Inverse folding.
């Protein structure tokens, strides 16, 4: 009876896990669709839409633009020198809850620009300006920013590691920007990539977290950073520096600020490392740090390839389930055999009781044999139960492993699809910009052609008076003079004849 109960429990759990496997993928899609529906507009402290700006001077009202940063086709560009843009308004609600997000792109390549790790770098800053060096064109030693600061610096460069390094200072030290001095870092390959990257920093006093994400993937998270209540509101900005010998160019596309946690800041699509969440002051790596680097555009699989691999995984799981079913059938046969032997033993014991009721000299050897059979059957039953428990544990482990692999596959698929969508969106935006530029050039050519036609018509209208003034009038005057001369000659000839 115990074996049958365990078998029924085993079948019931199998059914539950099978149904859960059919439901879980749809739940992930529902959550994703709900998060996409909740669009959160950036706050007023954000950088304006650069596509609508005509010149860098349009930012002067709310931003301090320093050094050699330029505006070019809807993006802020830093090349061959240093540049910076700092918000004149400070980060409100600094000690409570906020989210800040920077979208950037680098044109650098590992072949040409990897050697400029000490000079090339882009930094996002959150500092207390009252306890830092003044923000001006002179304090640009730290990748376009101050060398001494009170707050946080999020530096993107290739020194020691390609990726992001997080530095914290109290305004009394000059940091060397090494990994040893950082409070956290994560590696990601921003070189050899035409796709923009999003760096998101979020803080919540109530949730007790300080989090950094790269393209919605968790890079760094800790509950040890708590901003004091009497802290001044942070000054924030972006700085960068490029060596004159380097061909790398930094493009700043967006800088958005919210006074609360956004949905993307709360939800992490994936981890930047191989499943190891880095808490407190630990390093998180995004990619396998091998010497051979493959650009992100080459490692993206097509949807057809992902679909093929998904089908192969389903077939493999079906084969494992079929093999598990065969083992379950063997266990069923063994349990049936044990049940049959137990029933036979029960009948023999009943007959033995009726036969010994009047005869106390029952053969003790027969009784010993019966007890030995009982012991053997009990041992077999214990072995069967143990095998069943092992099978159940293996099945549970397999389900958990497959469930984990499924979640990881869904997360990777979401990440790759998001990357492709962003790449396509950026390509579309670039195409739109080029079309707008072409239309502007076309309008300018049409305007110049129209002005040329108007000038030609004006010249034709002025030509006739000029001809009359400078040609016909002298001719008429000459004819008049010639007529007078001829008349005088004829008059003189007549006068001479009369004489």
């Amino acid at each position: 009876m115990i074996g049958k109960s365990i078998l029924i429990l085993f079948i019931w759990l199998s059914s539950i896990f099978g149904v859960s496997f059919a439901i879980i993928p749809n739940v992930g899609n529902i959550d994703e669709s709900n998060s996409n529906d909740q669009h959160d507009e950036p706050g007023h402290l954000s950088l304006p839409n650069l596509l609508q700006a005509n010149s860098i001077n349009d930012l002067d009202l709310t931003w301090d633009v320093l050094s050699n940063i330029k505006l070019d086709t809807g993006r802020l560009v830093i090349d061959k020198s240093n540049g910076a843009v700092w918000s004149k308004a400070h980060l409100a609600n600094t000690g409570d809850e906020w989210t800040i997000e920077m979208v950037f792109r680098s044109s650098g390549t590992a072949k040409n620009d990897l050697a400029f790790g000490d000079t090339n770098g882009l930094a996002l800053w959150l500092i207390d300006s009252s306890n830092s060096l003044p923000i001006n064109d002179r304090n640009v030693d730290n990748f376009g920013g101050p060398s001494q600061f009170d707050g946080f610096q999020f530096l993107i460069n290739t020194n020691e590691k390609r990726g992001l390094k997080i530095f914290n200072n109290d305004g009394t030290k000059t940091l060397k920007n090494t990994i040893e001095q950082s409070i956290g870092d994560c590696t990601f390959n921003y070189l050899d990539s035409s796709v923009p990257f999003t760096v998101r920093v979020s803080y919540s006093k109530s949730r007790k977290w300080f989090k950094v994400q790269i393209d919605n993937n968790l890079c760094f998270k800790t509950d040890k950073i708590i901003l004091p209540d009497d802290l001044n509101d942070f000054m924030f900005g972006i700085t960068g520096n490029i060596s004159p010998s380097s061909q790398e160019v930094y493009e700043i596309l967006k800088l958005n600020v919210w006074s609360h946690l956004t949905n993307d800041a709360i939800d992490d699509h994936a981890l930047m490392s191989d499943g190891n969440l880095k808490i407190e002051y630990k390093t998180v790596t995004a990619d396998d740090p091998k010497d051979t680097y493959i650009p992100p555009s080459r490692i993206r699989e097509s949807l057809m390839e992902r679909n093929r691999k998904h089908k192969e995984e389903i077939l493999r799981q079906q084969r494992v389930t079929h093999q598990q079913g065969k083992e379950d059938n063997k266990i069923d046969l063994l349990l049936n055999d044990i049940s049959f032997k137990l029933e036979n033993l029960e009948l023999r014991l009943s007959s033995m009781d009726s036969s010994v009721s009047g005869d106390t000299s029952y053969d003790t050897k027969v009784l010993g044999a019966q007890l030995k059979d009982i012991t053997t059957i009990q041992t077999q039953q214990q072995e069967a139960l143990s095998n069943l428990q092992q099978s159940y544990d293996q099945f549970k482990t397999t389900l958990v492993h497959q469930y984990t692999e499924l979640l990881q596959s869904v997360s990777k698929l979401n990440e790759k699809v998001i990357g492709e969508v962003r790449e396509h969106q950026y390509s579309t935006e670039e195409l739109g910009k080029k079309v707008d530029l072409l239309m502007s050039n076309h309008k300018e050519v049409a305007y110049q052609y129209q002005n040329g036609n108007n000038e030609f018509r004006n010249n034709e209208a002025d030509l006739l008076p000029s001809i009359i003034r400078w040609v016909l009038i002298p001719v008429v005057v000459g004819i008049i003079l010639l007529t007078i001369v001829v008349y005088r000659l004829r008059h003189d000839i007549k006068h001479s004849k009369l004489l």
